[in-house]
From TrEMBL:
Family label: Belongs to the type III secretion exporter family.
Protein's job: Required for formation of the rod structure in the basal body of the flagellar apparatus. Together with FliI and FliH, may constitute the export apparatus of flagellin.
Membrane topology reported for the UniProt record: Multi-pass membrane protein
Annotated source species: Pectinatus haikarae
Compartments it resides in: Cell membrane
Entry-linked InterPro entries: FlhB, T3SS_substrate_exporter, T3SS_substrate_exporter_C
Protein name: Flagellar biosynthetic protein FlhB
NCBIfam families named in the record: flhB (TIGR00328)
Pfam family, one: Bac_export_2
Length: 377
């Protein structure tokens, strides 16, 4: 008894009554409850649909920038002071087009020398982190023109979608968490501020820079932790979006492996064609060795062959068909149970007779050739 019959029997006592629950199982057929297959994950990756955390990327980039600035601060300070000295020296001369162009070129060179380490570190950190998160992805699909993107109703739906609300909640939580740590740090440093009054300008600047960098590194640490948590959430969310229904998995299997029914029909057709070709070879045989009912093996031997060749073999109904064709063609049929079984199990169609069966097959062929000579005589 199938499931629908069981449900029908269970619901019979309640038919005609108002207060009973009925439901359609087919409503749950398309529910996406299965984890995505490797093919679906690969297809999404090729289309550029990957789990990536922008918060983690931003925190790493900011951290790389501040870390490079911290280590290259002395070099940058020296280059800028030398440049400022050069500017104030050149201002004493006449100001013309040539001097302005020269000053502009010097400014570009200094900016390149001072900003190059920071920009290189930021670029390297960004590329390395993106490659770590998603690997190498090149897809033009996000750039394709889609009229749905211009649909205002669709746009409003995206703005008030569940994903947008989650991103809004994450942004608010990030601002509150970072603001809380900044507040704690500033409250701790406010006590140290009056000491700057009694320092000279250089020492005061060093202290202020130290406070700023410590604050920056603390913010980067908080953002890094939030970014790691966001990456875990993005991977979970990406997996949820790619979940499949059981019907989706069946359809994917049909696309990749082929429809089982069609594959079965193809195999059946191939088997029939192979059987027909084999039956066409039976009239060329010299002898049919049988079991007598279970096996039938057709052997052919011509001059130049190293050993007789099995051109057809079969079991049960196929064996009966081979014997029928052999009778119609006037081919000798020899009953030898052990030899028939041994040939059927030890060799395939197109193979030569195994060496250990040479003697037994030779005796059968000799017997067949004697019969043919008697008939001719």
């Amino acid at each position: 008894m199938n499931c629908m019959a069981v449900l029908q029997r269970c619901c019979e006592p309640y038919q005609g009554k108002k207060n009973y629950i009925s439901f359609d199982i087919q409503l749950f057929a398309g529910e996406k409850t299965e984890d995505p297959t490797s093919k679906r994950m690969s297809d999404a990756h090729n289309k550029g649909q990957v789990a990536r955390s922008q918060d983690l990327s931003a925190s790493i980039v900011i951290l790389a920038g501040f870390f490079t600035l911290w280590n290259c601060g002395t070099y940058i300070y020296r280059e800028l002071t030398q440049f400022m000295a050069l500017i104030f020296t050149n201002l004493e001369g006449p100001l013309n087009a040539e001097s302005v162009v020269h000053l502009f070129m010097e400014t570009m060179v200094v900016l390149a020398k001072t900003l190059a380490p920071i920009m290189f570190a930021v670029l390297l950190a960004g590329l390395a982190l993106n490659y770590y998160q998603v690997g190498f992805v090149f897809s033009t699909e996000p750039l394709t023109f889609d009229l749905n993107r211009l649909n205002p109703i669709t746009g409003i739906g995206r703005i008030f979608s569940k994903r947008s609300l989650v991103e809004l909640a994450k942004s608010i939580a990030k601002i509150l968490i970072v603001g809380y740590f900044v507040y704690l740090y500033i409250i701790d440093q406010v006590i140290q501020m009056p000491k700057l009054i009694f320092m000279d300008l250089q020492m005061a600047l060093v202290s202020i820079v130290d406070i700023i960098f410590k604050l920056a590194f603390e913010i980067c640490a908080v953002l890094l932790i939030l970014g790691i948590m966001d990456l875990m959430y993005q991977k979970w969310q990406h997996k949820q979006e790619l979940k499949m229904s059981k019907q989706d998995i069946k359809d994917e299997f049909k696309q990749t492996e082929g429809d089982p029914q069609i594959k079965g029909k193809i195999k059946q057709k191939q088997k029939q064609m192979s059987l027909q070709r084999m039956m066409h070879e039976v009239p060329k045989a010299d002898v049919i060795i049988t079991n007598p009912t279970h096996f039938a093996i057709a052997l052919q031997y011509e001059k130049g062959m190293t050993a007789p060749v099995i051109i057809a073999k079969g079991q049960d109904l196929v064996a009966q068909r081979i014997k029928q064709i052999a009778c119609d063609a006037g081919i000798a049929i020899v009953e030898n149970k052990p030899l028939a079984r041994a040939l059927y199990l030890s060799a395939d169609i197109g193979d030569v007779v195994p060496q250990e069966l040479y003697k037994a097959v030779a005796e059968v062929l000799a017997y067949v050739y004697r019969l043919k000579k008697k008939k001719l005589a």
